[in-house]
Design goal:
14 strands, three-stranded antiparallel beta sheet, alpha+beta, single chain, 554 residues, disordered N terminus
Length: 554
């Protein structure tokens, strides 16, 4: 139906509306606040960890290095120095570029570095990547990035289709956070007040990769795997909302090898299971292609780190989903949700970041057009609440009238922020502030649970000024993620000298509720890291990892 709609639009209008150039205002304090100051010359340490099966031999080494904007514009100005101070002959290939209106663009966003190295021992070694001065030693040509990657042997993923590199190249979390790989991130431990969040992300990450923190009784439980395991190899549900990007976030905030290794495996498995029409192979037979399983963000992030051609090929298939679910809203549609618009926007934006294709950025802008229109000019009869108003029937919800989903709005704002960083679309900050006003006015309630002396703040699952979902014991599952609606509003309000403490008050209340949901692990009790349903790993943490950085901006 999406293809038909696009064809009809082209016939009537001469060209799809998403072919228009997007607006941009890159001069605002709020926009520029996300970007580190340009640094045309400098260095960053790289920790190289050899694969155990690459030892005692000369092996091809291949790894990607992402750069913040305004750092380097010519690959000839990138060099690699070993731990003795000697420059290594390398081949450098540009994987992606920062493009205007990003500050400092056009410039390099990610490069692939390749060279030959003798792996004498398993001891990690620290090399130095430098930029800003001409490289003295080069290799004449490179090779396919996947050359000599090694099949895995631990059964975490299929050995013949998922591989490890001969060498893992690890960057500091401080670098990864400012390279804007997944928004602007603060390294774990930067803000002690968020230790609870970092501990939770670490614990649930262990559960997501089937290495849960268990007590002695749980370790010998006869149904241990069924009760505490995540069947991500055979079932589709754990992949919803992009588990791979969430695993990457554990690496991006810590710089640790283990999550990086698993994320690289995870993305290869996902890429192998994207079918020719963009559909996810683990979905039940007969289900049509579904845009919410289009995890393009994971493919783009992994491309920055690897340059694997298989990721580009999978991306081309995922992009086809943009024509399988058209984003335009009308009251006559039988099905429409914020999460579908969110993934439509994310696919277009992240694919643009990988390829630089302006048509993809224009399609992302079109998704933003739709969202802004729903906020500012709702359909006849619908309230102007400031959310993406639609009907509960279209949402397959027990709520039948006009309504919105606060937690699915988080998914949309997460995609909108990725779009904002590459577009400087001035409508995004206003969308965020308007959505936050909706949320604190119509999207929350306070309740004292049974057998508790405390009153907690929870988000409604569905809510508008005219109709709300019934209160559910499951509402507390979204205290953590819906806080992002308020944190983004705090950031933009501060940058525009607008009132913001009303957002902080409600955010603090939601944090109190979230902490009740994320208890610390104590020996002898049931692990708090059991994921049910498994997709909540992604809805909790993929959209919220930048909260510590956002809240600590003046």
């Amino acid at each position: 139906m999406g293809l038909l709609f696009a064809a009809l639009t082209a016939l009537i209008c001469g060209a799809p509306t998403w072919a228009q150039a997007p607006p941009a205002d890159p001069t605002t304090v709020a926009y520029r606040g996300f970007f580190p100051a340009p640094q045309p010359q400098g260095k960053v340490p790289l920790t190289l960890v050899p694969h155990p099966r690459a030892l005692s031999q000369v092996v091809p080494v291949s790894f990607g290095v992402p750069f913040p904007p305004g750092y380097v514009s010519d690959p000839k100005l990138i060099s690699l120095v070993d731990n003795t101070g000697q420059e290594i002959p390398i081949h450098v290939e540009v994987l992606a570029n920062w493009l205007p209106p990003v500050p400092g663009a056009p410039c390099i966003r990610s490069v692939l570095i390749q060279y030959q190295d003798y792996m004498a021992s398993s001891v990690p070694r620290t090399y130095t990547l430098r930029w800003g001065k001409p490289r003295q030693k080069s290799m004449p040509k490179g090779w396919p990035a996947s050359r000599s990657w090694l099949s895995i042997t631990d059964n975490s993923y299929p050995a013949l289709t998922v591989k490890d590199p001969t060498v893992w190249a690890l960057l500091p979390a401080s670098w990864l956070g400012k390279a804007l790989i997944k928004g602007r991130l603060a390294p774990a431990g930067t803000y002690p007040a968020f230790h609870w969040y970092e501990e939770a992300l670490g614990g649930f990450y262990q559960q997501a990769i089937n290495q849960p923190v268990l007590n002695k009784n749980q370790q010998v439980h006869p149904e241990r795997k069924k009760r505490f395991g995540i069947d991500y190899l055979n079932t589709y549900e754990p992949w919803l909302f992009d588990r791979t990007t969430t695993i990457f976030l554990r690496y991006l905030t810590t710089g640790d090898l283990k999550p990086y290794k698993f994320a690289l495996r995870d993305v290869q498995f996902y890429a192998r299971n994207v079918q020719e029409d963009g559909n996810f192979a683990l979905l039940k037979p007969g289900r049509p292609p579904n845009v919410i399983y289009g995890n393009q963000e994971a493919l783009t992030i992994a491309w920055f780190f690897t340059g694997l051609n298989s990721l580009q090929n999978a991306s081309k298939r995922v992009v086809k989903l943009l024509d399988r679910w058209y984003p335009e809203y009308s009251p006559e549609r039988t099905f429409w949700t914020e999460r579908h618009l969110a993934f439509h926007l994310m696919i277009a934006t992240a694919a643009y970041e990988m390829t630089g294709d302006p048509a993809l950025l224009a399609r992302a802008r079109h998704a933003m057009d739709i969202a802004v229109g729903m906020q500012t000019s709702p359909p006849p009869g619908a309230p102007k609440d400031g959310c993406l108003i639609h009907t509960g029937v279209q949402h397959s919800s027990p709520v039948k009238g006009w309504t919105c989903s606060p937690w699915m709005s988080v998914l949309f704002e997460d995609a909108a922020m990725r779009y904002y960083l590459v577009s400087a679309d001035p409508r995004v900050p206003q969308l965020v502030l308007t959505m936050a006003d909706y949320f604190i006015t119509h999207g929350i309630y306070r309740r004292q649970p049974k057998n508790s002396k405390k009153t907690f703040t929870y988000p409604y699952y569905m809510a508008s000024s005219v109709e709300k979902a019934e209160i559910s014991s499951m509402d507390w599952q979204h205290c953590l993620d819906t806080g992002k609606l308020l944190v983004l509003a705090i950031y933009f309000a501060r940058k525009q000298n607008l009132p913001w403490k009303q957002y902080l008050k409600i955010y603090d209340e939601l944090v109190v509720s979230a902490k009740e949901m994320l208890p610390k692990h104590r020996t002898g009790r049931i692990t708090p890291y059991t994921l049910f349903p498994p997709r909540k790993f992604s809805w909790w943490f993929r959209t919220t990892a930048d909260i510590p950085w956002l809240l600590n901006q003046p």
